[in-house]
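Students often ask why we bother encoding 3D structure as a string. The short answer is that it lets us treat folding as translation between two languages. Here is a chain of 451 residues written in the first language.
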Amino acid sequence: MKRIFLNWKAFTLITLTAGLFTACDTDDAVKEIENGTDSRWITVAAARMGENPGDGNGGTLIYSVSAEDAKDPSISIEPFDNGFIVPSNRTARLQSSQDGNTIFNISYAGDTGGNYTKYTVNGGQNFAQTGSAVSIEPYVGSAPRWIKLFDGDQTGAAVYVSTENEISDNDTPDDATDDFYLRTEAKMGIVTLDLENSLIKEFQEHSISLSDELESQGYYIGRIDMPTLNAAGDKLYIGARLSKVDPTTGERDRNAEMLESRSIVLDYPSLLNPTVIISEVGTGNTNGYRSINAFEYNGSVYQANQSDPQGSHILKIGADNKYDDSYVFNLDDALGIEGAYILAWRPAANGKAVVAYRHDGSAEGVAGAQGFFALVDLNAKTAQKINDIPYDPDFYLFQYQGFVVDGNDIYVTQAPVGENGNIYVVDTETGEVTKGAELVNVEGSHFIGVF
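And here it is in the second language, the structure alphabet:
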């Protein structure tokens, strides 16, 4: 398959051409939104194959329909043929406004990596850039990990961590003459972005340390992601992954023991005074991957962990900005499976959430382990697989990014790599599932969610 290479000239030409061909359809869609009972756009995101099925490296395309059409199984959506090409060298990192009328994007990697743009959603493939673009590349690099804070669509936050091994040129304690490993310096950068006015708000860098004992063993914070604002709006939590080097060689130790889950806490909006908090419940990483990994609910922040040897947990950070270790919610126990791994998740305002996950029993598909959805209750600490969504060995959720929450309803996409599928709408209050619009796929490609 021919790989799509995105550049600004081609992007502009495609967008202008698409606008001419779809003007009538878009006008009709806008009238439907204005005159109908449902006013929210549902934007489908599709990741085209690069070199391998499911890699998503061929670019990202988006296409929007009304919520009413999204629920209609007689509607077919073809973003790969008719969608708007989002500027990004690889899979775009997308966010949407709470009302669905705006899409925010920061390009990932390549010449445009780190460029922030936002678009007004006008239906179909019609996305109009609004406001000026701004680059956060000087602050957090060309492949930033970013998220939209839940503060009324005002602020985005992007983070990075850089590491360097510290080596002593003094003799070792046993009088050897070779250089030896001391610790790994982990430097965190964080920038906040004014989404409304496309301006940099604040930037800070910090050295993030662990205990002397752990650092002497080679542990360090090697990856961070998913900043989340607390209920009071005065602290920012950042998920973290620990890595390790072999202190005798300075080489990466990929078989290191998993340690307790950790997060970094910063003052907000100053981004000062970083501290590291530790869970006594979960083991493993809290940085997530492509999707938001932590959410504020009912005064606390609930956060998924990954690579936990006991299966993923949903952890709780209380109003005191510390892990609440009295809250124990293990997905293995709740679902009766082993090796649960939360890939992405999203709660509604009622405390019930849809979780995308895999487990040790997942089939190995063309792009990786098979994925599933579960309905989770944060208050009752229960989970149930959503059986009314069809599953296939090639249903791949590792790169999943977007859920739409509309009241108690949560919208998801389901389609195996390279095959057609559908939008599904989960009523989190009743558990009822509605099969919605058909998603038309192309060879080797997949859908990464709705916004």
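Translate back mentally: The radius of gyration is 22 Å. Keep this in mind for the problem set.
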